[in-house]
Amino acid sequence: MELPIDKTGDVAAVTVPVDELDASNAPELKRDIVPVLQANTKVVLDLSRVRFMDSSGLGAMLSCLRQLNARKGELKLCGMTRQVRSAFELVRLHRIFDIYADRAEAVRALQSPPACPS
Amino acid sequence: MSVPAPGQKWEVCTETRKELRILHLEDSSTDAELVKRQLREAGPRWIVRRAATREAFVSELEEFHPDVVLADYSLPDFDGLSAIRQVRQKDPDLPVIVVTGVLGDEAAVTLIRAGANDYLLKDRLAGLPLAVERAVQQAEQSRARKRAEAELQDLNAELEERIATRTAELEQLRAYDAEVGLRIQRSLLFSAPPTVSGLQIAALTAPSQRIDGDFYIFLPYPDHTLDFAVGDVMGKGIPAALLAAALKSQFHKALTHMTMVSERGTLPDPQDIVMLAHAQLVRELIELESFASLCYVRLDLDRQTVAMVDCGHTGMLHWHAAARRCEILHGNGLPLGIREGEIFEPMSVPFASGDLLLFFSDGITEARDKAGEFFGAERLMQHVQSNSALEPGLLVESIHQAVMAFTNTARLPDDLTSVCLRIGQPQARERDAVNVRSDLRELRAVREFVRQFCAARLTSEPTMEFVDSLELAVNEGASNIMRHAYLGRPNQWIRLEAEAGPDSVAVHLKHLGRSFVPPESPKVPDGTWDVGFGTYIMARSVDQVRYHRDDLGRNCVSLVKFLKSRKEVDSNGIADR
Lengths: 118, 577
Hints:
The structure holds two protein chains of two kinds. Chain A is α/β, with parallel strands linked by helices. Helices cover about 40% and strands about 20% of the residues of chain A. Chain A is globular, with a radius of gyration of 13 Å. In chain B, the strands form four sheets. In chain B, strands 2-1-3-4-5 form a five-stranded parallel sheet, sandwiched between helices. A five-stranded antiparallel sheet of chain B has the order 6-15-14-11-12. A five-stranded antiparallel sheet of chain B has the order 7-8-9-10-13. The radius of gyration of chain B is 45 Å and the shape is elongated. Chains A and B meet through helix 3 and helix 4 of A and helix 11, helix 12 and helix 13 of B.
């Protein structure tokens, strides 16, 4: 899976390049994002293209978070569509992730000393 | 001459009889010589050794291995009584003959009690050889008897052990029988009630110690019609269970045949199905000296009628919602397997929305209390009357509890089987179905099916949240089936069936893969695990999740979501409706 990365200083903003993240493509994302997570400690995942996310997609998000946490890194999510946000809330993952409305906000949060997530 | 080990038998042979070894306790050498001579006169068969003191006696007893002991009654440091005790300690069967000068009656009795075999006065020694012979013979007999007794005891012990082993084996077999019987019953004789729109169905069977031949069959048709039969084969145990299984398959066969030959689009009559199944079975049943009671029922939800063929069964309990009263309807047919060519007459009654129909085995009405009184039909009707508000699942459960409380026993003599149906509001259902391959890339098609069904088939427009969560739940169900039931093989099939009523949408995901059983209550994800959300998500997204097998034996995950959610999503969020 081709992952467009946009670097702003030491912050890497990655666009999740699918409109539906489910069991068919989540393992691919999980695999292909590993180099990004290893090369960066400040990562933003932009989910604005993702209309639907299932449990496998949520699992991939958790996997990213865990890998970065293990390296004292930080992960921010942004651009969630309504349905994806609902899925996060359904399993209470919105309490675990830092979620921002848009990418600029998420990138800013990582650049400056940590601010309170919206 | 070799000396046998203690306890070993002397060879007694008439030709060459072995010498007898005699130990003689005697302090007077004159008396000893007299005894010796007496014996020598009787023949050369004696080896006599004399002990004059206690020490000598004790040591000779050990080393000489006498066949007989002769003992003087009184020695300076020892006496006949002590000598007897000494001997008895060593060998209870070694004969002791007291040889003495004078002996009063009292002393003689004391000696005999202490274990002397005989006594002789020194002035009457002529009888000594005979007395010795006799004592040796008696000792041999006693030893032989004891050996025989010991052998017998061993044999008995062995026999007892074998009986115990066999009993345990039989017990195990019986337990195995019961286990197999129960499995037959569970897997072949009962099946989960089908989902029929406009009907709530529940069935409950509490098996007795040894299973009966209780069984039921559900045969749903697509057009708001449900056939089902409840029955009870005479007898108990595996034979009854097997016969019930045979009976059940005979009904399937009869139905298949009748459907094949009936005019396109019409269902065969219940009466014809019963009569064909009976014709196929009756001879076997008669030959096996068995029979079965059965109630074959057809519910027509459009016409609101129930047709019943009652073959000697318990009939149908009908609770009328409008009149709030109960009645039990019986047919007058004989049980199956009584008479060849029996004509089974159907009866037909109307029902209305809210009515309850209950079918039950005689295990319920014939359950007895301690005084021997039956639970009875009257008590059953009263129970239904006062619990008519319960949902069918709870009602059958409450009947079971009532019977258990009544009999006040943990051991049921008969299976308790009850099937309860509540007639719902007549409702037109929208249906659609699609087959998808078990390829994860087909999940997109699964979601598309759900969205399209919701958009096109629902009379009132659902909220976005409704469609989103149904889509998510169905996606998770399909994903689980692809990954866990089909173990990732992409070339299998999943059938999606959706149906919509006025207040709910149900999606059934049917497959032929492994039946996976999700954890009873999914854990709330806490961020420490990232797989296995699926089950949890399903439970949170819809109002009902049910894992079952459909009437064709396919594994089925049924998801139901009410348009106006009856479930406030709470912290547990698990729908149990």
